Structures
1.
Amino acid sequence: MQPHDKRTEEICSEFAKVFDGKPTHVAIAPGRVNLIGEHTDYNDGFVLPVALDKDVRVVFRPRTDRRVRLYAVEFDSWADFDLDSLAFNNDVFWANYTMGVAWALEEAGVRLAGLEGVVSGNVPRGSGLSSSAALEISNALALLSAAGAPDALTGTEIAKAAQHAENVFVGVNCGIMDQFISTLGEEGQALLIDCRSLDYQRVPFPDGASLVIGNTKASRSLANSAYNERRAQCEEGVARLQSVLPAITALRDVTSAQLEEHSGLLSPVVYRRCRHVVGENERVMATVAALAAGDLDEVGRLMNTSHESLRDDYAVSSDALDAMVDAMRSVPGCLGARLTGAGFGGCAVALVSKGHERAVRDAIFERYSKAMNIWPDVYTSPASAGARVMPID
Ligand code: ADP
Ligand code: MG
């Protein structure tokens, strides 16, 4: 039996308050930060995320019927539904992730059982560190475990089911990266994911560096419509390029040289969107090579170039994200910094030489707050473990 930490114990106390008795298990799934490879996932490309030491967890015990009763601590609200009558619920939004995951797991062929549990998370919500995927994956592992089928699906299948739930049941158009890294992350490792084949490769996170994440706390209100518009622009780029490159099915298949050669087929805006995606895929592979060679300066340079490309070509940065990145880069120990996640708000991530984390943090509080008149949050996290379920004694 593994010892449980303070947070799990606290959630178990909540469980005792809202249900009679004790939970039998805890399912834990982390949030994530993407080192590089932004807006590449839905273009069948490459991403390089790490799992964070922040997570959503659910303590639970199985039921013998098909009823699911979950209490969410941060929302002080209930999801209470029957697995045989799943329907979108506008009043309790978070419950749709739970219902969606249940629906998608059954679609994937697993017969589920009910459970009762308490959900609680410390992944900042709506900040681009993917609290939604952490919620989905923790719920998926809890549902599978309660059904006595913890090994019915592979990690990849669980991630796909959770993405399907978010796309179809919740109605959010996301790629596969977040669910994938939350499920399959590993301590000390980044994960190179091929978002077409879903092949993945562990890439050791360098000993000499840390991640510092700055949360702009700025509104992401533009993010949804812009995200859908960018996706449409990428599709338009592919459709036009197919007239001369019939074998391509996504921007993943296009090289920088091909894009330059055929740029005349594209409107200036669509060309710039495509140039970001094609260049970003190449930067992910260059980052993996630089990490393998221990060349952290090069990794930092690639992260900086990624930010410039997201700002100028893909146009998904914001004053707040640019101010955050400037603040991070003002410290000499910062090797590179970029916006992370979909953009328009949320977080930026810096790769920082060990020992300089504090200085970067101080610079963020000092400079960002002055530039934007917003008090930010700053997190540091090692590359952490992916999702797991453990018994509670
Ligand atoms: P992000 O994934 O970037 O954090 P999203 O808007 O995609 O932002 O997901 C945030 C939503 O996920 C929240 O509004 C809530 O519905 C759900 N969620 C996240 N964390 C929790 C939690 N601890 N408890 C219940 N629901 C949560
Ligand atoms: Mg999300």
2.
Amino acid sequence: MPGRQSVDAVIVGAGFSGLYQLYRLRELGLSTRVFEAGDGVGGTWYWNRYPGARCDITSLAYSYSFSPELEQEWEWTEKYPTQTEVLRYLNHVAQRFDLLRDISLGARVVSALWDDTTARWTVTTDAGEQVDAQFVIMATGVLSAFKLPEVPGLDRYRGRTHHTARWGTDEVRFDGLRVAVIGTGSSGIQCIPLIAEQAADLTVFQRTANFSTPAGNRPLDPAQVAEMKGSYRAYREAQRTSWYGVPAEPPTELALSVPGRERLATYEAGWAKGEIVGLISCYADILIDPAANESAAEFARSKIRAVVTDPELAEALSPRTFPIGTKRLCLDTGYYETFNQPHVHLVDLRETPLVEFTPVGLRTTDREFEFDAIVFATGFDAMTGALNAINVRGRDGVSLAEEWAAGPRTYLGIAIAGFPNLFTVTGPLSPSVLSNMIVSIEQHVEWISDCVAHVRSAGSAAIEATPEAEAGWVQHVAEVGSVTLFPRADSWYMGANVPGKARVFLPYIGGVGTYRQICDEIAADNYRGFTLRAAGEPAHT
Ligand code: NAP
């Protein structure tokens, strides 16, 4: 077994969060090791290589702001960047800032154990390497623990299988094959049109129809890029104070307070933007008032009916079981059009659920199907899955996964009572997945870095959230969420896509600007809700 290294900090993950966290800790002079399970940096953008994988935030907004030089030198080429373009960007960042020398690739962290006597963590990888560190920062990503359908028999299936979140680096072709895609979330909706171009026959297994807006993707206009590069500082500031990390005038009108014709025109304009929030940000009450929500939902359904020529199929593709916007909205390129092709079929799993996989395909309650390849676009154990997959034990050997069995409890989505010197970047109960992730990641990384500097300059061994502060935050997040329609959906935001997972609204919906203000006030108030202590000192005095 390799020898044990001692460092100031361990970062788990080398995606957008881990790379920037390493950069900031180096600036503070901390010795840092990064462990990354993938064989390359990039996190989500390393793993999700499926055809059509593309960001749903515009490229000029979905990028780091910490380096004006990086902003100026990098050239984005399309409105929405492809997975390959974002991954190229992250590799450039890793090289440009000389980050790779502190990153161990192909190294999955399996445990992180806190020793209260030494006030240090011991982090162990799947290769048995152990490192001890004063701080551990979980940059493990919010959508990284992928899931398969909870249906028996997959090990018996003899054809090819692919999961969108583990696509691999070899080119995958479906020419002439009979292909199944299971899942119609963002990943399924992006890959289905491209798989349909190759497959001889494609069957899409849909459990819940989703709302999707045409992305209107296009090459970036050089004049638009030049304008952004000339005004990036002001734009970044506007991002930081915005609601979801993309500057936009918040709507003030209520949907049903305007005449029907005017409302439709407004929805048309919102739809035409080709943005995930284009439609739902038309009015102030769409995510709050069921009737307002239904007016937007019906508009979106009318768009499906306008594209899909078979009315029965159009209806089957029309979401009816949750308010629009309460499951992550999708952006697509030719998704609904794909179903007009004769070799593309839809199976509604609500009518005929999946029963099992067979050696040649799968069986629903209605019939058997044979496939040469099955693509799983079945999503993730979101926000908590990657953290719970690591054996994290805090004071008194308490297990994080067990502590969170009834739902995650954090202070600000950054810190956890009973787990000193452990930080989570865009963790549960922070704005995270309800925002432009890069804006939220930068804010967390900068806040965590300032907090680490504070601990060290105070000569303290450890910082820890108090149970009272954590309880207050958990309650606040739930209260803000309960005002919205989000709890009505069986979404991954609610943990509802994973059998047995606690039903808790996982992100904070107060807005990134408001949230930043709260975090800054807490830091300015001498890290209100945290305790500092020397090694060996009891946790709460
Ligand atoms: P997802 O949104 O959770 O979708 C998974 C799909 O698989 C759903 O349709 C789900 O049905 C279905 N499914 C899950 N388990 C099943 C089972 N046992 N049997 C049948 N169907 C099953 O996952 P995703 O599409 O990978 O997207 C996850 C998130 O990643 C997105 O919401 C988005 O935030 C992010 N993402 C973003 C982009 C982008 O930037 N454009 C692209 C991909 C992903 P139910 O709905 O009934 O659970």
3.
Amino acid sequence: MKDCNCIFCKIADGKIPSAKVYEDDRMLVFKDIEPKAKVHLLAIGKDHFKLLSEMDSERAELLSYMFSKIPQIAEQNGCKNGYRLVINQGDDAGQTVFHLHIHILGGEQLPW
Ligand code: 5GP
Ligand code: ZN
């Protein structure tokens, strides 16, 4: 992660500022800079990997940990009435940052 030229690694390292709402030794959740819903958070692991296709057991464990934390983080940040999780994968999905991340969208009734 230290030598990684990746914007989300730099955010995780504190080299680029972000509006953090949760952090521990394994993951970080911060506000999306261009929110697509009233609440739009991004959850990232502190270990860099690009795509679900690069999954191994360690990364699967990290994702499992992140999913276990997300419900409480979402509820504490304006998503008491529900939220949507999105993981864009690749160009057709419009993925722009190739550090796996989970979008947390809510705070309002979302259009499909
Ligand atoms: P993707 O399109 O890869 O699924 O999502 C990338 C997301 O990262 C986009 O919603 C975009 O607004 C957000 N983003 C890109 N650069 C930054 C940044 O420097 N800071 C924050 N907080 N969000 C960013
Ligand atoms: Zn990264």
4.
Amino acid sequence: MTEATGIVGEFLSLKEGTDADLLAMQCGDFYEFFAEDAEIVADELDLKVSQKSSHGSSYPMAGVPVDDLTPYVSALVERGYRVAIADQHETEDGHAREITRVVTPGTHLETGDESAQYLAAVVREAGRDGGDTYGIAATDVTTGQFQVTQLDDADAGEALTELYTFAPAEILPGPELRNDDEFLNRLRERTDAALTLHDSASFEPGRASHTVREQFGGEAVDSVGVGEQGVALRAAGAVLSYVEDTGVGTLAAVTRLQAYGERDHVDLDATTQRNLELTETMQGDSSGSLFDTIDHTVTAAGGRLLQRWLQRPRRNRAELERRQSCVAALSEAAMARERVRETLSDAYDLERLAARATSGSADARDLRAVRETLSLLGRVADAVTETERLAESPLADALAGADREAADTLAAELDSALVADPPGTVRQGGLFKRGYDDDLDEIIGEHEAALEWLETLPDREKERTGITHLSVDRNKTDGYYIQVGKSETDTVPEEYRHVKTLKNSKRYTTPELDEKERDVLRLEERRHDMEYERFQALRERVAERATLLQDVGRTLAELDAVASLAVHAVENDWTRPAVVEGNELSIEAGRHPVVEQTTEFVPNDLYMGDDRQFLIVTGPNMSGKSTYMRQAALITLLAQAGSFVPARSATVGTVDGIFTRVGALDELAQGRSTFMVEMQELSNILHSATEESLVILDEVGRGTATFDGISIAWAATEYIVNAIQSKTLFATHYHELTALGEELPTVENVHVAVDGEPRSAGSDGDVTFLRTVRDGPTDRSYGVHVADLAGVPEPVVDRSQEVLDRLRDDKAIEIRGSEGDDGGTTQAVFDLESGQFRGGNAGSAGAQVATDGNPEHATGESEAESATDEAAASLDPETEAVLSELTELDVNETPPVELMAKVQEWQAELDEE
Ligand code: ADP
Ligand code: MG
């Protein structure tokens, strides 16, 4: 292939100079993608690919019109691509192109998504005493949020947990993490974030510190205590440098450095966020999540904040009580609450508008929106001060935190400047009110007078010439013209100069019209330029007040979030929990916040405390064990988000982390887990949980063979009770574990109560699960009932029940012949100890497959075997091979992972037929 030259060559060499994934290069009225990029883009966005030939070679090409670039780039970025944009500008000899910005998932300003969009950097250093120190910085360029933290003596798991709480769109791993494949793999597995290897030099302590000081000022850096050479500073410097490099231009909106301590919030790892369905369900829908259920916010910023509260619950009791007091006040003052929410519903997204102003992308409508929203501050403040219940609550302080006077001043300035309904473009005038600026007024005056002259020209001409079909108009090619109907073209005055003939009319100009046209065009251009200039200055002034916008935005968002919590509390009869230090978790008549929305929920109680730290939860399948435990976790989480909780009353000792693991079986059913993952997660919990944590283990150990499972569950329980001492709820179907409840002092058994006895053959035996939880272990397995619930055919369910009853009562079971045969019944004795059939006249398991109806086949061992052979003889060799392997395999001796692999292998073999 020949070296590409011309436009493709230019594209390829620009591409070479960027590490973006894709390049969009402006070529006149289009942005074009070439070569491989064209194919990727065409594929992702359903664009047409054409061929561009360049000096003998041909290259794929795909393009989008200049005005449509933004949505296309957004779509690409949302799919995880980093897109470089090369703009074209005029030069003395033609035009030149250069990359002006790179749009990436973490710096994407035009996101259509209302939720937060974090760019994060993570750095690791070896700590003094063996453990590692991690620094993490995260910013949301759409709102100017910037947060940093340092984790001392931490492991990779803790650092990842910290990162997950931001749900970053893009992550910049520090130089020392780039070769740590395990770390990177875990990142890839658990987040959708794009991983970007940003310039290592920007992570260097000296350079990073300088960047951070430039941005926030030295004092701010010192006062938040992230340390001169700290790892957090390195992460922060890298983030700032990356934002700068992408050219997105929002650094000015990033005004405040927030450092948060490790001990201030509750650890929630990615698995727990998913298990508890905080922002999306296990199926990946946002509808049906906890956030979706409790979200009644009326603004985008309020929604973001509420979501953040759920994803980053706090430990600071003063802050939690402050939020609770706001919720309490708002839930009692119904009228004022509705007034506040009604007012807030007119608010625009101030934090994002601030970022748009500072990046220079805000238009006049955006500034108008800033004005509308700033002016709401006064209105909600009035609603609060005029209502006694609210005025004496912490809401009043929260509102006092925003500078109402400054907000009013800026709002007034914007109002005096911009017309009420400005156009969507800022280069064509029509933005400013009269009286805002004298020079502008003069131009506008002249321009409008000239327009007025043109508008009234037809009437004057009609009168002067007596022509009736006469109009004045303007188009691109002819400029202004006088148009006269065909029937009257003979009578036009002689100064009319003909320019064009149409089917029914002719067009003319006059010297006077030509002159006015020049005037209008000149005035128009001057007016557009002057308005644009004034507009830029105005936007600049708004950008300078970015901090004010952010403050007011946050105040309104917080008001929206607490009002939303109040609405939910009132509508669902939630209660204010007592948030305390220590180990207690008592819930009286508690409910699951999401399940209660769709089900007649049976409330239940929970008590945990110093003497009851570990509860073993047993009960039939489908009786509500998982729900009960998640409910405990969610009530704790809601309490530490500052919310009320679904219960009659509750006391919640604050926790430092919530850890959950749902047994592989539930997850396997959804095809998302393996026993290996289950064990990794259990291991992570055993490493990370502390005595102040809440641990939820749901059927852990179930993804493996019975004996393995029991052993693991048993050992994990002992370890948690003896070594970790965290508050723990453990649901298990291994009744053996309940023995622990009797032996270990802080371990207690609870079970989900069942109303009535399980069905037995003969009675109609319907079981109603009560779903109330009582002390003591349950004593039975209800698998048959669940089979029934699941719609297993009636005869099978009935027969299963008979088998189960016989096994329990007589430890024996008869083997029946095939249908229509009443003679084929053989007795076999089941040994409960070994779980095997033994002795009797049906001595082997082989006898049970002899179901051809011939009693002889099941009467003696040798004959039974020959029957098996006979049946096998009719099978194809593959199936036979699988069967024999299956028979020989010892389930209790085979590692679970191997078992799964085996099953897969068999399935594949059987499939091949
Ligand atoms: P288990 O873990 O014991 O198998 P689950 O917790 O999965 O049972 O609950 C089974 C079903 O019962 C779910 O559909 C759940 O919504 C419902 N459920 C659980 N607890 C209650 C309750 N207290 N009141 C009403 N329905 C409940
Ligand atoms: Mg369950």
